[in-house]
Structure formats: C-alpha cells, structure tokens
Input
Amino acid sequence: MSRLTYVALLLISGMAASPARAMTPDERREYLAKLQQILPDVPSFREWLQKTGELPPDFDALPRINALPEPLQFLNGRTVRTPRDWPARRAEIRQLFEKYDLGTFPPKPKLDRAVVLDETRGKGYLVRNVRLEFGPGSRGTLRVQVMIPDGKGPFPVLISPNLTGWAPSLLRRGYISCGYAGNDGMDDAAALAQLYPDYDFALLPRRAWAASLVLDYLETIPAADMQHVGMFGYSRDGKMAAIAAAMDDRIAAVIAGSTGVGGVLPWRLAGERGFGESIESTTRSFPTWFVPRLRFFAGREDRLPIDGNLLVALVAPRAALLEYGLNDEVSNSWGDEQSYYSALKVYKLLGQPNRLGILRVPGFHGANDQEACLDWLDIQFGRSTRVWNNQFLFPWDWDHWRTNSRESVDLKGYPKASGDLLAAAGGAITSTAEWERKAGEIRQSVEWMLGDEPPMMPPGAGRGGRGLPGRGGPGGRSPAVPGRGGAGRAGGNPGQTTPDLVNWVIQRGGTSFGWLEPQKSQTSSRSVSFGFNVRGDLYYPSGTPEGTRLPTVIWLHGYSYPLGYMWVYHNDLHPILALVRAGYAVLAYDQSGFGSRMAEIGPFYDRYPHWSQMGRMVEDARAAIDALQKDSLVDPERIYLFGYSMGGMVGLYTAALDSRVKGVVSICGFTPMRTDTADRGTGGIARYSQEHPLIPRLGFFIGHESQIPYDFPGLLATLAPRPALVVEPQLDRDATPADVESAVTQAKRVYALYDAAPKLSLEEPWDYNRLPNRTQDEIIQWMAANLH
Output
C-alpha cells in the first residue's frame, strides 16, 4: 500500500467518523468544566473565557482525522484535483488557521514613511537603521536594519526577526541582511494589539504580519531583488517565519528552523503521546503565542481542522526548508518528515516538488547549520546548480516492502474470527487446560505476525550476543551519586554527532523534563547492556543496601522519537522516578527506531525483510529480562512491564510470549484490531503497517480486520492469571474506549477460569492520551496492591 492509498484510507476514516448528533450547549459546558479540572489553570485563558463566554467547539461536528489533515481535500470532503482548485482550498485553510490558531488579521496598512535613523559604512557593506511608521495616525512603528553589500545589485535578501540575523554569513555570500524588531528581545509588534483592537491576531501572528511592512520597505530599495526574498526564523521565531511566508506571497523562500509544534511540526504527531510539546503545554507556557481558542483542542488534536503540514502547504509553490536537530527536543524527526510528505502533494500538484526540502542536523534544539541553509537558498534562487539531498530517516513504504520481501497472505486461510474467546471447535472452553491449548494457538499467530526472528548468539559467544557486559556489568554496582550514580557519560551539546540523550536530560533537569527533586537526588543508576547491541540504564533508590533484591520494572516508552525513554514539556514526575520512589528498580532503554536508536529503522527491512520492528522490540524486552534475571540487584521472580502508548502494546506482546513477566501495566496501549475499522476514526490498523512500520504483515488485513488471526482480548487472556492493569482514558484518540472495555471484559472470563478475575483491572479516567501525576499515583497504588 502506497502513501497515497494510506492517505485515502485516512480520508475515508475521517469522513466516516463524524457523528450525526451535535453536542448540545449543556454538553459543551460540561466538557469545559471537566477540561478545566484536569488541566493546569492558565489565568489568561480563564479571563478570556469569562470575557467572551465562549464554549468548546462542537467536536462531533468536526471531522475526526487522527493522522494529518489532507491538504488536497476541502473540509466538506471535496477533492482538489487540479491546480485551478488549489486557490480555493488554500483560502479555506487560511480561514481555518485564523479561526483556530492565529486570529484575524487587519488589512495591511500603507507604509506612511521610512525614517532613516543612521547609516554606517563597513568594510564592503552599508548598515542602515530605519524606523517604519504606519497605521492609524502613523502610531505604529517598526525598527528595521538592512545591511547591503557593496557592488552592483540587485541582491537577494534574507529577512530575520532580529536586527542582525545572519548578517556575517549573508554579506560574504552576496545577500542583503534585513532584520526587524520582531522577537522576544526586541518586539515592536507587541503594540499592534492596541493599535488594532478589532482584530484578535495573537503574538506570533502579529510578528509575522509585521514582516509584510518590512517587505513594503524593501520594495523601495533599488539594491533589493524582490523576486528573491527569503525569511528565516528558529524555534518560536521559526513558527513566526513559517506563518509570515504562508501569509505573504512576496516571501519567495522560508527557512523554518526547529519550529516545533505550532509551526511546521504537526500537533497531531507530537504532544504528550510523543513525549513532547503539546497544545496543552504550549497554551499554558506561552498563552499569548496563539489564540486562546486553541486550548480547547488539548487532547482533541484529531478534531483540529488544521495542522503544521497545512501551514507548509500554504507556502506552496514557493520554497520551504524544514530544518531541525536529529534529537531536537522541541522538534520531532519523524513528525517533520510526515509534514514534508503531506505538503509535498501540493508542491507536486503545482509542479514544484524540488522547492520543498528538509535539513536534519546533528544535536538537540539549537543545532543549526547556517551555511547549509544558505546552500539550499542558493539552489532555490538559481545561484547554484547543486542538487539538494533530503536524507530521510524514515523512508517507509509498505508497497516497497511487499515487493522486496515477496510476502503475501492468502486471506482464504483466515476465516472471520468468533467474538467468543471461550469458543472452541469441540464446544465451550471450561477449564484452564483447555484454555492453555487455545492460548498456545494465539501465541503461534502472534509469532507469525511479528515475523521471523533472526538467530541470537548466547551470552559470551560473540559480539552482539545477549547479555553483553556494560559499564559495571550485569550485577555490578556503581556509587550512589545523585541522579546518575556512577554512569560517567560526557555531557551533550547542540553540535554533537553522538548525543548522550539521558545524561543531557538529567544535566538539564528542571520541570520540563520531569526529572525533579528531591527524587532526582534520591535515585542512582548504572548502565546495563543486553540483547543485540542494546544499552539501557538501571535506576534504583540511592542507598539500597548491598544484597537487596528489588522488584523491577521495565519501562517501555511510547512514540518518543527525539528523546527515546525520556520526555520533555511534561511538568509531571517522570515515571522512572515515580517508580523508584515507590521502591522499584527500573530498567529503561530506547526502543528500536527511537532516541539514540533512530537510525536503526531506515535500513531495518532491507536487513530483515521477514521480521518486524515490533518483533525487534519484543526481542529487546525479552533480552532485558535475561539480563535482569542475572543482576544481583533484581528479584528475578518480580520482573514487571510498564508501558505507555506504543510501549503498552510492546508490553502486552512481550508478556503474552514470555511467562517470566509477572505483571503488566499497559497505558493507552491498544484498541482491539478487529473492530479498528475506518469508521472508528483512529486511523485503523494501517497505523501499524502503513503509518508506522511496526507490523507489516498486519497490512494484508486492512479492510479484512475480522480475519486477523488474534486480537487484544486474546492477548490479555494469555496473561492469566498474572496481574494486569489496562489504563484507557475516555478521550484517547488512538482507541475506541468502549472496545477496550469490551476486550477487558472478554479476557476476564478467561481469568475467571483461574479464579483470578480481580487480577485483571481497567481504569478509565476522564482524560486524554497522557500520563499525569494523578494517573501515575493510581497505577502505583494498584501495583502495590496486586504485584507481589
């Protein structure tokens, strides 16, 4: 299945998932009251609600699109088929951005005058400082600085939201540097709210709007080549630069540096489920950046009619470069690539696919390669004949895999499944012995779906075998130093090529990463290596007496591309520290394709065409158990799995196949596959085979979900009688909560055969897909009562 076919499935899903019944005003008020209970208070948002009386939107009236909104489809479902259709769709996208994200803009005023404040001649260039005057009574002012190279123009221009910008590099390469006071350090756009009180454009959009006045001024400079004007911004300024380029066609190229969400990175593909910045954290920490209305969509990103991919599409067919760091905690390599692929459809429609590019540089947020960006700009402005290489990290295509692997599935061999777990050919299952036979069949189906696991050499038999010794070795003990114990890693910096993510996060600490005191200082750790070249970290309470064997949890993270098992923009205590505080040792590691192991996924299916990424993750988890059972700190009879989102799914697969797992916590980990069809609005099972390359063989069952040979009710039931907790928030956009509840109810029937029905529990908080402190506390209380 190609990307195009997958997008078509998602569109059908979104259109089919719009309920006919609208939310009543009372229901919207009730929703708002509950939302305010679970989210931190934001005074400016509260005041806005009191002033306007606005209610959350009727979410049921908005299409449910869990992946990215389709740029080539109108909100009513009509398709953009030709370039002539695009201007109308573009206008609709802009209107939606103004409503839900940016606010309304006043008409651009005439530039009344440009007052030259001073001019200074440098060696080979001229510096001019100007004050622009505009608006009602010429009361609007904007400071601008231009640096013009000597020589015969016209020269291309790069605008920056600070006065100096990239002037040193630009002048050397024959560009005009044009900066204006449009950032946190010098913000002349702040006064625009009072100047235009009838318009509600937010802070970043105001700064973007001001760029149009800068362009008006540039048009008066003979040396400026107005056909080749670019704009650059980084981080929040990158968001602003992307908005400016989307709104003013005179910007011929934009370099959007590490914008994060609210820029070119889609809200849908980051957020709490991606262990990154979200609508909630952004509108709480920076409530003036976007319109207050955006906060209503915290956890309801699937109902938001716009997203970062559409912001990029608004720039088309003009040039756009998406720049970000490999382990950029503000950005997200996978999400940025998906934004690229989505917007590329518009660029192709308009005949300019080469005007859209990506630039991934080593390091964290702050990593930036000015010279490479200018190389790209030279190409776009016809000053270089080089060919740009996008260097994708995630070039997954299911059709390509199917062709190369020559895999196929004869669906005739997979009859529609019975909905009764206790049904069998010879009649109903009434004993544990009968169930164990069926559980064996379920495990065989799981093993087939996960693919052909390659051989693994035993410990000590060669490089890469299970249980490779790490620093301190399995069972070794390093000094109980606050935070990291004796794991002596080098600190990270934004230019490094091999970042030590864990040490970098811990060194930074602070509320954004959840690595909080006093628990940070009460936790020690050491490195553990295991499996096929996997390195993890074993955390434990500082001062644990020698010879103590602790109950141990393996922490399985979710879709956290930049930071692996760490998270950012979470004020909640990190689960590792919460579990250590409760007396557990915790093994954490980056799962294959994430964090320090992102590079594994690109070539994975060329190396292992008949295996799966999920299969590799399960292998890693089982190898972790191998290592833990030999560790002197670990009680080998009390090893548990604790997984969130994708990690919750990994935990269930692992526990189903490995009886050494003595208990499981799965948070937002699954929705039953056989009912995860297009009309549910989640994105369906295509998420695991087309969107993410987790389980390619599952792709053969798209449209035939009832024939999938196993499902999560059965997986849960194979755990019986071991304790298991399923946490399914009522607003989880990746699941159908009623189906999850049904799955637990079915599995409980099997647990009842063992007289163990209470050991399988379901928690359904009124919340969305995230892991706040209160949920963690409730989970740990359950663990204390049920894991022995």
User: Anything to note?
Assistant: The first helix runs from residue 3 to 16. The CA atoms of residues 604 and 613 lie 8 Å apart. The chain is about 30% helix and 15% strand.
